[in-house]
Amino acid sequence: MRIATYTLFNTGVNNLQRRQQDLASSQEQMTTGKRVARVGDDPAAAARAERAMIATQRADANQRALDASRSAMMLAESALGEAGELMQQARDTVMAAGNPSYTDAEREMLVLSLRGLRDQLLVVANRADGVGTFLFGGQGSASPPFVDAPGGVQYQGSDGQTQVDAGQPVPLAIDGRHAWLEATNPVAGDPPLSLFDTLDRVIGELSTPGRGDPEVAQTVHDGLRDLDASLNHLLVWRARAGETLNRQDSLENRIADARLGAQYERSLAEDLDMVQAISEFQTRQTGYDAALRAYSTVQRMSLFNYING
Amino acid sequence: MSGTALMTVGVRAMSASYAALQTTSNNIANASVEGYSRQKTILATAPGQYTGAGFFGRGVDVKSIERTHNAFLAREAAATRSLASLDETRLYQLHQLESIFKHGEQGLGSATSQLLNSMSDLAARPADGATREVVLARAAELAARFAESGRNFDAIQLGVKSELTAAVDSVNNLAGQIAKVNGAIAAARGLGQPPNHLLDERDRLIREISRFVQVSTLPADDGTVSVFVGGGQRLVLGDSAEQLTVMSDRFDSSRQGIGIIEGGAPARRLKTDTLGAGSMAGLLRFQNEDLAEARTLVGQLAVALGSALNAQQQLGMNLRQPVGSVPSQALFAYGEPVALPADTNARGPGGEPVTPVTLTVTDASQLRASEYLLKPDTAGAPGSYLLTRLSDGRTSTITSGQEVDGMRIDIGPPDAAPTDQFLLQPVTRGGDAMRALLSDPLDLAAASPQTADTPSTNTGTVAVSALTMSSTPLDRTATATITFTSSSGAYSWDLVDALGAPIAGGTGNWVAGQPIPAPPDGDINGFQVTFTGVPASGDVIEVVPTTYPESNNGNALALAALRDIAIVGRTLQSDGTYAGGLTSAESWVAALADVGVRIEGAEASAAISDTLATQAEMARANSSGVNLDEEAARLMQFQQSYQAAAKVLQVAQSVFDTLLNTVSG
User: Fold this and answer.
1) Predicted TM-score (pTM) of this structure
2) How many Cβ atoms from other residues are within 10 Å of residue B166's Cβ?
3) ipTM, 2 dp
């Protein structure tokens, strides 16, 4: 086959250009560290990387939701713990009031401290998380959920628990009515016990002057019974909050695993394998070098070089 | 016999060798000229002179200078270049789409996912102003990215137009040159010798014009070549050429097509699919298939996502005071569907189409990423139309007012004329006009108008996980009670108004994993409730009006839940449930992959067709081009011939001298 000199040179130049482009694209990949810079480079890998990125962002969002829930649950757990201690003090105070040698005036001192404890408990029950949510506001409360009202402390929040989705539903608040006002009554058949009602009743009865020892003993007995029921109920809720926190720890691990998996997947899909890239770069470099040598050798060859004079 | 004969033979041999040397030198001189065909001197033995002793040769004649030309290889080179040019042009344009279909944090997918994720943040802190601001910022960012994509699409479309215009100018210019060369070739025909340089020039022009548009050629007896485009459309005939022109698409004036102006008549459209190959065909194919489909993919996502978010937002409660006084407004505005009449449709005196067609989106989640062609069904009943979905070519027969793929099509009155055609673009420009509408954080409807609770008296383990509003409540102040009547999931519900008067009621059967009520039963007072745990007989779920929207996050949860619902391109089945469809994220990934695969495919075909074109061009050039080594050999050959001829003259001279000396001696 004959070859036109023009084509020979053109082909040579074209080949050199192509090899130079290959080398440049290898170099670009190595400097960016990305194998898939544009979607056309590898559509399947780009789609995988995109999916993985969205999964990463989702994991981040779940983590933020979890953080919100955990901060609420930690505050609620410590508030319930604090309430438990206050209740213990109240219990001790009521017990002390049962001392038959106490006069009305001496009992009044104890009642004062009971009133203080009751008010502290109300403050704890109305505690907020700092960003506008009440820890015991249930499914929402615009103002402090527990208010003093005729007939005792009333719950103004919405029943239930506000939840948020962190891969699975996690609570943002605790059902205040249930936790504080609905302890199971130790007297079967009677309505659920409100912690504040119990305290109010005990305070009222102990501060009534001129009662006999049996009456006081009855008050102390019933008071302790009902306070213990409410205290146990609060502790159950505290345990629930603690359990939620435990559950959140394992949920956090799952989120972290999902995030790591997604990041790995994304890296696998779009990042460059450096070892392979360097080896490919060297192969291309050698190819380019060989092409240059071949071109300069071939273009020197001509019959004209051998025709003398 | 005279010495003159010897002299004549010598002179002829010398001039023949000289002619051959001249041709060879010309070949050497033109070795680097693209499209130059190697020439050779055709020599012929001069007729002998008869004598009694036989025929004496009288030397050699130069008969002609011919070029080496292979018509088949030349045609092949032009045709393959045409195809390669199509692929190369389309690939170049497709690469521009990569600026819109970006993966990673800068892409539309990330903006979509981040907006929906911010709804989860809103659910975690519904009362927090800063979180609300973030949601609004994410919404604005998403709208801006969609709008930016629209602008990029427009810019790419404009680029197609200017490239087409440039290509048409080049084709017209080249066609004119071919006509001129044709004229010169016809004129030179009388000389009896081939005008090699003109023939080369014409071949080169035809190869050049093939880059822009595929042509077929037909040689005529007078030596001219006619050039045809678009399946037999005459572009050059003899020494006259027609003009191509860029014309707007018959439906969509932003899109372009090619027309031809014949003999000064008004331009006539050329069908795009008859153009075959060449860069113009590549541009049109990109515009009509790739760009149009890419636009619908983005538009479909914009409309489906925007509509789903708007609907959910509007079902929720904002924080405008007093509570519930201001209805919640949509989050986004996006492009409306359009029906474009063909410019050939019947028109009224004011130029408006006689038959108007309007599109209304009835269910954005059912919209397809496609455009549709609508025309009267001339074989069917009056008032029936054929609707062709262009993405898959599926044709259905419809009448005015019918709903197809999530849109209602209203045609006329009056009915369309038999020749009328319409292009329906339900989503094509959906993303272009996307805007975020809310600027006040209080306008975000994070709260659900209703709140579900399970009383502590329940004995089962039911806990409400979500209450989602799916339509506007019958009565915002009503209370619904769902009571499980068996432990196998049977339940009854009743709805009473604020005064305790019953409004509605019913029964159902709960299936694990399904909400209450489950599709296709619709909703109770606008809501559906999902829960975890197992209900015991007698257990109750109460749904009451939300008292404190400031701290309720029900609607934010529903907005965040859109992450996992197939809201794009699903199908409503006859039983009222949805099937198919993709989540917004999956829809974006699919769009990304679709464009990526197009580019990958175009890259492969461009590589193949370029190789084929290069090979064909090499075959052509190798057969008709100049090889300098060959010319060097010929140079020596003819130099020796010349020297030998000169020797003949010298001998003739010496013979003549000998004769003269004898005579004078």
Assistant:
1) 0.88
2) 13
3) 0.86
